[in-house]
Amino acid sequence: MSRVLIAGESWVTQSTHIKGVDHFTTSSYVVGVEPLRKALESRGHEVVHLPAHLVPAEFPADLSGYDVVVLSDIGANSLQLAPEVFERARAGADRLAALRAWVSAGGGLLMIGGYLSFTGFEGKAAFRNTVLHEVLPVELLAEDDRVELPAGAAAAVTDPSHPALGGVSGAWPDLLGYNRVRPRAATKVLATLNEDPLVAVAEYGRGRSAVFTSDCSPHWAPTEFCEDWDGYARVFGGLVEWLAA
């Protein structure tokens, strides 16, 4: 069993309702981590979820209590700009440097795609400009890296025997988008989408890193992928288990 920290996969939505000359706003809080949490817990892993709005204040600089860290749909700013730095202009911990050092010393890092992953929507995820970029098994684009696939597209598995895929077999359900990245020289690309890396893994120092460049929940991962397909738990379980090995 591994202890897994998942940071991100939640958001707040605010809507403006206009009715004639009057208007009002409503807000909702959404958590998208449940398919991933359930998949990992079904394989015996302990999962700690740190919602996106708590990441700036609570993402730990000391990761010694975890085997694998998952960053999913959470941008670099949320990890770099703790309240004491952004609001009070005081020097604080460099948590991305601490995460890089933790992986190099033997930890496992998984980045999952989304609008605030990799380079992201309008470049706002911004991991290309950080020290964590070198830890990832892929090179990030300088521009908005999202590829929308509204008609859906299925993954092509290139290395079905690799343990990081968890022994999944058969066709994968369609996905509706992903972040485009480029593999590094030492990277193993295990699955592709539109001939771009979907699942890729690499060693980093004494640790390991991996990416899944589509999403683990809607909208890029429709219910047929993240709820109805028994391969979902195998893929993400396999990634976590390979990272923790």
UniProtKB/TrEMBL annotation:
Family matches, as InterPro entries: Class_I_gatase-like, GATase1-like
Pfam families cross-referenced by the UniProt entry: GATase1_like
Residue ranges annotated for the Putative glutamine amidotransferase domain, each copy included: 3-244
CDD domains per record: A4_beta-galactosidase_middle_domain (cd03143)
SUPFAM superfamilies from the UniProt entry: Class I glutamine amidotransferase-like
Family matches, as Gene3D superfamilies: 3.40.50.880
Stored PANTHER family: BLL2462 PROTEIN
Identification of the protein by name: Membrane protein
Record organism: Actinomadura viridis
Organism phylogeny: Bacteria, Bacillati, Actinomycetota, Actinomycetes, Streptosporangiales
